[in-house]
Amino acid sequence: MSQNGKSISIGLSQFAAAVAAFSMVSAQAASAQDAGDFRRWAVSVNATQVFVDEEAADLTLGGGPVPGAEVSIDDVSSVTVDVGYFFTPNIAGNLFLGVPPTAEIDAAGSIAPLGTLAEVDFGPVILSAQYHFNGLGPVHPYLGLGVGRIVFLNKSDKALTGFDIEDSWAPAVQAGVRYDLNPAWMLNADVRYVPFSTDASGSLGGAPVRATLDIKPILANVGLAYRF
């Protein structure tokens, strides 16, 4: 009787161990399935405000420096789109671009009486790597680091003739947050800092004008994102 009881006890122990092992394997499989079953693409349409901080370094007229010469570029707004691909739930690649707004480049400082020097459409195309912080419920803060190409289009003369401005590369840093409305839709808000330098040129009364523009735009974005 004791031997049978011992056999039954050993059998129950083995059965319990088998159930525990099966449960552990099932949990691991489910976890692996969940990790692989997430929405990899995210597309966001944003309203964007560009805050511009600018400085005209080494502005020359006819080859000579112009003391106190500066330029002013107004803040502008635009519609932008960013497309993200999630390699993991935390790590994503992101492409950002938008409708190029028109900026007026105005004379400032000692050359302010010249008024508007030129107009140009511009826009950054930014490729970034992002890290998203999860585990905070529907709130997902994230940071991004990348590189942007600042593209200038439709260059128009005003006080300057023959106006030209060169495209430029720029580093791009980003901080943002997304808020889940449901598994597919999210609200998105972020700020990007994209400082760059570029060379501009033209003529004023037949005399050549050249300047290096140091521009430090901050792009503030608010949008709606769809993840699939």
* N-end to C-end Cα span: 63 Å
Find the structural class using helix and strand composition. alpha+beta
Tally of strands: 15
Please provide the ordered H/E string of secondary-structure elements: HEEEEEEEEEEEEEEE
Mean pLDDT, all residues: 88
- Measured by DSSP, the beta-strand proportion falls in over 45%
Query: Can you give the helix content as a percent range?
Result: 10-25%
Strand order of the largest sheet: 1-5-6-8-9-11-12-15
Sheet with most strands? 8 strands, antiparallel, barrel
Rg, Cα atoms, Å? 29 Å
The low-confidence parts are 25-36
Shape: elongated
DSSP helix count? 1
Tell me about this structure.
- The protein has 228 residues and is of the alpha+beta class.
- Helix content is 15%, strand content 63%.
- Strand 11 and strand 12 form a beta hairpin.
- The relative contact order is 0.19.
